[in-house]
Amino acid sequence: MSEPLRFRGGGFVTRPKPISSCLAGLAVVAIWQAVASAGWVSPVFLPSPAGIARALAEMALSGQLWRHLAASLQRILLGFALGSAAGLAFGLALGLLSHARAAGLPIVSALFPIPKIALLPLFILWFGIGEPSKVATIALGVFFPMAIATYSGVDQVPRTLIRMAQSFDVPTHAVVAKVILPGALPGILSGVRISASIALILVVAAEMIGAEFGVGAFILTAGNLMRTEDLLAGVCLLSILGLAVGFLVSLAERRLLAWR
Amino acid sequence: MSEPLRFRGGGFVTRPKPISSCLAGLAVVAIWQAVASAGWVSPVFLPSPAGIARALAEMALSGQLWRHLAASLQRILLGFALGSAAGLAFGLALGLLSHARAAGLPIVSALFPIPKIALLPLFILWFGIGEPSKVATIALGVFFPMAIATYSGVDQVPRTLIRMAQSFDVPTHAVVAKVILPGALPGILSGVRISASIALILVVAAEMIGAEFGVGAFILTAGNLMRTEDLLAGVCLLSILGLAVGFLVSLAERRLLAWR
Amino acid sequence: MRLIVERVSHGYGALEVLDDISLTVEEGEILAIIGPSGCGKSTLLGILGGLLKPSKGRVLTDGSAPEGSLNPITYIFQDFALLPWRSVAGNVAFALEHRRLGAREREARIDEVLAKIGLRDFASALPRQLSGGMRQRVGIARALAVRPAILLLDEPLSALDAQTREILIEEFLALWLAHRTTAVYVTHNLDEALRLADRVCVLSRRPGRIREMVAVDVGRQDRTPARLAPLRERLWRSIQDEARAADREYV
Amino acid sequence: MRLIVERVSHGYGALEVLDDISLTVEEGEILAIIGPSGCGKSTLLGILGGLLKPSKGRVLTDGSAPEGSLNPITYIFQDFALLPWRSVAGNVAFALEHRRLGAREREARIDEVLAKIGLRDFASALPRQLSGGMRQRVGIARALAVRPAILLLDEPLSALDAQTREILIEEFLALWLAHRTTAVYVTHNLDEALRLADRVCVLSRRPGRIREMVAVDVGRQDRTPARLAPLRERLWRSIQDEARAADREYV
Amino acid sequence: EKTSLSVLKLASSGPVFLAQDLGHFAAEGLEVELKFFAAAQPVAVAVVSGDAEFGVTGLTAGFYNLAGKGALKIIAGQSREQPGYKLSAYMVSNKAWEAGVRSPADFAGRSFGMTQVGSTFHYMVGLLAEKRGFDVAKMRLVPLQSIPNMVSALQGGQVDTAILPSTVAVPMADRNDAKIVGWAGDETPWQLGALFTSPKMIDTKRATVERFVRAYKKGVAAYDLAFQKKTDQAATDKALDILAKYTEQQKGAIAAGLPYIEPEARFSAKDIAKQVAYWQAQKQADASVDAKEIVVTTFVPSLD
Ligand SMILES: Nc1ncnc2c1ncn2[C@@H]1O[C@H](COP(=O)(O)OP(=O)(O)OP(=O)(O)O)[C@@H](O)[C@H]1O
Ligand SMILES: Nc1ncnc2c1ncn2[C@@H]1O[C@H](COP(=O)(O)OP(=O)(O)OP(=O)(O)O)[C@@H](O)[C@H]1O
Ligand SMILES: [Mg+2]
Ligand SMILES: [Mg+2]
Asked: Among partner residues C77, C98, C126, which is closest to B164 by beta-carbon distance?
């Protein structure tokens, strides 16, 4: 009287479905285009994907695209480099020194939630209306998440590795360089991911003031002129930049964290 | 010829130093006040802490503080509630259903890095200059991090707990309700932490257009009037709000995640 | 209840894990399964419990579950698999919810198994407050609460320290002697297998095949180290080469 | 080299962990330390290695380290403590960097210990590619590379499965017989202690006190389960009550 | 000598553009770099932060707050709202028009769209309220940040009223997107814009300031000749070309909305004092701002 076993497992495992992914992407664009083409809504309210693509193509052909991209990328890179270098150093101090942490952490927690966009008028007063204030805005926005990521990265280095190094009489500076820094790298890279996307967001705010060129400036101008196609073309650019940055960080992770 | 053992451990442990914390906080404020009082820099460039405190006190006494706070909090709460409810639902779908994840994740990754501030003009077109566009800005800003946090929270529920539930023939809906949701709660709460701070940041952007009252509107007005003391008073308010939100989330974590 | 495995093979994608396994777990016996790391022991146990569909072959049950059994085939897990947000009693209750069982009877069952396993004083403790041994006792209590016909144990003691293991193995044996539930006991530990099992099934390296089926022909009351030594020696010779090879594999 | 512990006590804040420990580890012996969970075994080992300052008492070393010893007192860790971003050879090299040692000699030493422990083919593998047993072999190789006078081992095998444990214990014994390095071996496992140690130090529950010091008076070549059975029985009786109590403590 | 001027791309900055292209700055030995901004506020901030040595633009509450802290001094006049000059239009949304808002007097109690708190539009609605005797506090003043936002808000009826520059107002009215119900110049004339610099410039480079103001006055004179006296058609055409080049607007649109500029670049110190007093009463300017400290009448005499 034997019976086959009843199956009760399965489910709750998500497998990649590349076809669904592609279909979904295509479907969204297709429906959007259909709605826009049908003419139920004015193109000002809802520009069509085709219109946006046209705006992008125009920008690329006229050479404006590169000009805007170059201007924005320069600001982002400079601001990111300055902000993340400072954040890294500060985060390391927070992570390694009791007094630095006690003194620094409350200050960081108090300053972190401040929207940098609110400080723009001050930044302009301090750094002028040119590049420095834009770079400073981005750098400040990058500084805090980087400091926090580094500090919690240091915190997450397994204590046992530090004990091991000490048990082999490895000098303190070498413990920092060979154990703590590589061990904090996963945390630091996830900080890079966050702060890179913050830099992208802040470039729009930073270019609100006195920028002739830049993706942010382009978007703002388009917004002011109610050119929604241009606006969304600019937004697409930012989205592509964001995906590219994410991709680069993933690449760095695969390279630098191959040991995981 | 016995020798005492050489000690080689220690260090790399950060202990709370409450005195350092307080001293550091006081020192920052004191130095700032001293520099401002010394009159080396114009108060336009560097308002003094005393001036900021005075501006805050004035605001509180005149009743403006509550009016601004009430207006902003209403927007934040409504936007946060809408955005996080939608994000939670969407994130759950992403986490539980292969097809939803395949279709949704690329879309989320593409839309997440877009600065919401760039979309303000569109939001104003779609929702007008009244409350809806402000709430929508905040809700959209909250939606994405919440969806991503929920989805990765679901991903982090230990597989073995799901296997256990299935091995006791627990029906699928109960697995979701009793295993996956509570198991994803740590992830969801860290999403709440992030998206609450995003809501605070976006309230400034959202109140740029057509807001008479609100902390963001107050800050923007102060910026327009070049009243740096008021501006920093508003920024302090946001920072306090941010700390308060952080505190509330920590409280919720201690309550809801007491089991960790 | 008996469990009949008929020519079961299983693979994950291209990775063949189990190859043509046939065996029968007899009513009331403890069958130990040993084998090197990664040979597919957990996979086999997953198939026995209906959590995995084998790529080939089938599993049958034979006979009826005991009176009041809610979940004839029940697991005890290596990592305990407790819901960390539920108390000890809540974790046992989890197995009894979604059953046609009145609240009164549920409470009674929970109380009964907690008492039986010496957990009563800990009923409202959270898992994180308990030692490893206590956590696994909760796992055992939860399994007993559904009155299983067959227990599937996947290295239930390997996450515990040696002394706790010693204590729990005695407790488990005492419990088993009282219920004599059919059980499949996966372990790496020869001593554990020899102290508990009626038969020991030795699997080869991946893809796991049955290499040997060894009956432990020493009465449970006589299983002193000295009496078991020859059998242990023989089993160890049977598996040590493969264990060595598995140990030196890239993972 | 001998290690002399004089009236050592230790506490973490208000929590008393070790109470008045005095003992001597003789040159060339293996001293096993057993005791229930949380009784302070790891704390004691930390104090012996100079990583923790005892609240009271002191530790002395006596005698000189062998020729070429770079780190007289050296640990082998329960969780292996390998740098995951370094290869096997890199992990061994880590112990030799910051030493007055030419690159040539360093390479030679690394090669020597890897060969000795059978890891040569894995020199460039990363820890994550290795089984647990191989990882601990790297830990052992690293420790041997500095030519220690005293080895401190904190449950070095407890993270491994039973079969790998069996294999490694044999290898460790063979290595030890070749070097006869003084060693302190912390374990929960009576069998391990009895197979390896010259003496077994039994600690009480927290705060850890020395309850008993038992000499294993059976030659290492004669340590069959049967011969060790009486000693095992005696030790188990000595610790089982405390082990049971420790198991039932809230953590 | 190199110097710099922050300025808006508007016809009201015409004198500067004329002085530049007609060589008046060069004649004074000045090489002026023009720094363009999109709003009045940054023009003033640029002078404070040292990005530019001079600035010329409309006077806002923010300007007075900066000036009140000793950061800016007004040294010459720019545009004025003057009867007969159609510079800023009172506008009413079609919806509000239907509801009976048909003259500036009906602005009372309505919502009013403006760029920013403390902007010139904000001041103009205050002047209007004062003149027509209604309470500005009973209106809903909606800051919309930019003129395009004001246009769409008015078009969509999301605000009832607004004041807009003629360059935008007239085309809107022509498309019947909204109605013009009057002109600020006719209703409430006032000193809209000024040329200013930092006190440091006056202290340390007074000669430069004097040369700059001289050239600026020549630019104003050229503007007056071309657009206010209109005696020389060739000069008018040429000036219009120059303005079109700098403002990037159609000549027709520029010509239709040219502001009045006092021919000798004088300004009304009294009006400035009145503005400061108004902003102080509205609590938009700090009480410590002293109008007398802000104006310097040694380069160009005051009108009053
Ligand atoms: N879900 C899965 N997908 C892909 N491969 C898997 C999966 N589960 C297990 N494997 C692989 O199948 C092989 C057998 O796994 P299994 O867990 O059954 O072995 P095991 O005998 O229980 O090993 P251990 O002794 O380590 O517990 C291993 O090589 C493992 O990596
Ligand atoms: N750094 C520390 N700070 C505070 N308490 C500690 C610290 N390290 C250990 N303890 C506590 O001290 C006690 C002894 O710890 P220790 O690790 O020495 O025990 P053990 O005998 O090694 O236990 P186990 O058998 O579990 O390894 C435990 O109760 C532990 O919680
Ligand atoms: Mg397994
Ligand atoms: Mg320990």
From this structure: C77
